[in-house]
Amino acid sequence: MSLSELPGIDRRVKLSNLGDFAERLSVMTNELRDQILAPRPRKTAPIFTIGELSEMCGIDRQKINYLATKEGSELPPGEVQGTGRARTFSLKDARSWVQQVSDIYQTPLVSGTREHRGRVLITANFKGGSCKTTTSMCIGQGLSLRGRKVLMIDLDPQASLSELCGLYAEKDVTWEDTVLPYIYDPDLEGGIESKVQSTYWDGLDVIPAHNYLHDAEFHLPAAQKTNPNFEFWSVLRKGIEPLRAQYDYIILDTAPSLSYLTLNGLMAADAMVMPLVPESLDFISSVSFWSLFAEVANGFVEHEVDKSYDFVSVLLSRVDYGSTSSAPVVRSWSQRAYGDWLHTTEIPASSVMSNGALAFSTVFDLSRAETVAKTLARVKQPMVDYCKWIDDQYVAQWREGQ
């Protein structure tokens, strides 16, 4: 039989076949999740050495040992290791030390609520693979390690942030656990607050996402069509407002598109972070984001709806410093395009980050015992510095009573 006589491959795909295909993929995904998250489908927070705690609190190890063993001390003593000269501390213990011992300004509480309004940060980018979700989680974790209480809100139907928070997006979450019920009914009993869940990470809560969040893209425009006075862009902002008294920071992770939910997030946010991988296509995609957002913003301004951001920060992420990297060229483009918006901190590319992403982890999830300390610090320290920069912007305002 000649090659011309071989039967061709039928590549036609019918809509009616997609259900079976999606089901097969779902089964495969569940199996992969079980492998990746084995032996148990829950993440655990890292353990901190006395050296790490020393760095976080800005005091020497001897003082930590003294305060940990001092009679009558209210500080967590940690757990003694080996011969008794070393100690380790849980995340909750470490946060308690930071709040009580470090010189990091801690926000006053009155009857369990904060004196200041919590700040809302949003990460946004059109380009998939821009480290947007990982950056969101790292910012939340990094701020919590400064003693802050943080709420993550996942607005992306892909629910990757929910996975990073330790949830099986398809097993542990239903559409009723998301912001969607509030989008449907802003008079929902308990409001958005009723959807908050705790996570494996002390000081960090989450409102998860589900693929049904796509329904908001139909509901919001339909509601506006029915009621021309309906402010589709302000639904989330109004829902978040009561939560500002309970959290120092509320971080919104969005889908890689200018969807109705993303617009709600952009209009609710006090500040915006755009992670940008220094590759040419990523840069062009970022320009497209601003072009489209500017068109939408002009429409708002024409209807006398305006707002301001405390800052917009473009953060170069997954930067390759190799000799053949395009990063230097794209960095120069970014400097010309974004000026002061481009932050001086850069997050380097690293196998630590790649392996962490595979395990639904971030650099903050990893301990020094699990990886090479210098390699981990190379990626982790820039993110620590960036979180400090964000926090410093608002500490200045909080000290002034804003």
Structure description:
- This protein is of the alpha/beta class and 402 residues long.
- It has two domains: 54 residues; 293 residues, 3-Layer(aba) Sandwich (Rossmann fold), CATH 3.40.50.
- Helix content is 41%, strand content 14%.
- The chain contains 14 helices and 13 strands.
- The protein has an eight-stranded mixed β-sheet, with helices on both faces. A three-stranded antiparallel β-sheet has the order 1-3-2.
- A hairpin with a 5-residue loop joins strand 8 and strand 9.
- The longest helix has 27 residues.
- It is globular.
Could you write a compact summary of the structure shown?
With 402 residues, this protein is an alpha/beta fold. It is built from 14 helices and 13 strands.
Approximately what portion of the residues adopt beta-strand conformation?
Answer: 5-15%
Unreliable segments (pLDDT under 50, ≥5 consecutive)? Answer: none
Radius of gyration, in Å, reads: 23 Å
H/E topology pattern: HEHHEEHEEEHEHHEEHHEHEHEHEHH
The number of distinct structural domains comes to 2
**Global geometry:** globular
Q: Which architecture of the largest domain would the CATH scheme give at its second level?
A: 3-Layer(aba) Sandwich
Going by CATH, the homologous superfamily of the largest domain would be: P-loop containing nucleotide triphosphate hydrolases
Q: How helical, in percent, are the residues? A: 40-55%
CATH domain topology of the largest domain: Rossmann fold
The CA-CA distance between the termini, in Å, is 82 Å
Number of strands: 13
Q: Structural class per helix/strand content?
A: alpha/beta
Total DSSP helices: 14
Query: What is the subunit arrangement here?
Result: single chain
**Largest sheet features:** 8 strands, mixed
CATH class of the largest domain: Alpha Beta
- Average pLDDT reading: 85
Question: Largest sheet, order of strands side by side?
Answer: 8-9-7-10-6-11-12-13
